[in-house]
């Protein structure tokens, strides 16, 4: 430890000499005792608080303090004389960036940042470090001193925090997408429910009108059934009267037949009377004067007989005509009776059908009333669903806004992370400008002064 402190002191002294060389004449390059004491104090403080390691310009390890050795788990004998690449991953040391890194240090370019190191056994270690070229009196780089602080624990915490933030951000994105989909679906559902509610209202109005018409049809069917029953009664009465009339006409026909027979008897009597009158006239003529009066009477009797015969013939003709008409009337009455019977039968069928129609209309009216009640209830439920969908859409939009606010907070936390906010993905140990997370680098002169050195 004492030896390394002396080396640190000598490095500071070299910087002091460079400073005095540039600020004073060559004859005034020796520091005073107080300045030596200050330089030694700075060296002790740095060695106690920082992990320090010295490299030759080609990267060979010259020395390291206890802080560095304990951090990486090596002893000085295990690393001294070996190259810096032992702390780096093979992929990085074989890259052009690693070559450029050492070329820049040999040119006197200061480098600092966060670096990934491999300790003993391949243990991953993160350090905050600065690579400081040391110059001789001629301005040539004679070594590179690195001052480092172990930030592995903080780095792991930051990585864990970043993973949590990334998970929260991913979850927020998914939640945002889900809420947007829910809002969109809810709006569509609300719109569809509103349209469905309007359609249901129209259906309900149509059903009410249909129900009214069905009730009216049912009432009309009942009235028609009543009229049909009355018509059936009247048709039955008509059929009965026609049967009565047919019976009466049959009786008239029978009476006409009897009268016709009596007329024939009268006609025969008239014929016999006429013969008798003729005989009486012949006998009166034979009697001469004594029979003249009797001849006149016989002549009158013959005239009466002839008139009776003619009247009998006329009556007989009329009776025969009446009989024919009675026969025709009976036939017509029979046919009318058959028609009335068919009317009665048809009326019965119509009455049965009207009864069935009336019953079906009543059932249909009842069913439509129940459907209308169901549609009304469905309309209420649909309107309620529309309201719930609108509330859900509003809640989803509010959730989306809160998710957006959460994302903003997550992004703000990600930006404000003390270490992770300035670091890229893990890179190879000792990363050069392109492969490490480089902090903003101050402008360092090719030959830094002691004041410049104290900043690091």
> Structural class of the helix and strand makeup?
alpha+beta
For the sheet with most strands, the description reads: 5 strands, antiparallel
Percent helix range: over 70%
The residue-averaged pLDDT reads 76
Task: Give the termini separation.
Answer: 20 Å
CATH topology of the largest domain: Beta-Lactamase
Rg from C-alpha positions? 70 Å
**Helix tally?**
9
| Quaternary organisation | single chain
Please report the first level of CATH classification, the CATH class of the largest domain: Alpha Beta
What's the CATH H-level superfamily name of the largest domain?
Answer: PAS domain
Tell me what portion of residues adopts beta-strand conformation. Answer: 5-15%
Structural key phrases:
Beta-Lactamase, disordered N terminus, 9 helices, 9% strand, disordered C terminus, 456 residues, alpha+beta, 2 domains
Question: What does this molecule look like?
Answer:
The chain is α+β, with helices and mostly antiparallel strands and 456 residues long. It has two domains: 2-151 and 424-454, PAS domain (Beta-Lactamase, 2-Layer Sandwich); 211-388, Methyl-accepting chemotaxis protein (Helix Hairpins, Orthogonal Bundle), CATH 1.10.287.950. 73% of the residues lie in helices and 9% in strands. It has nine helices and five strands; from the N terminus they run H-H-E-E-H-H-H-H-E-E-E-H-H-H. The protein has helices at residues 2-23, 33-49, 66-72, 76-79, 90-93, 96-106, 152-287, 292-416, 450-454, and strands spanning 51-55, 61-64, 111-118, 124-135, 141-150. Strands 2-1-5-4-3 form a five-stranded antiparallel beta sheet. The longest helix is centred in the middle third of the chain and has 136 residues, at 152-287. 23% of the residues are buried.
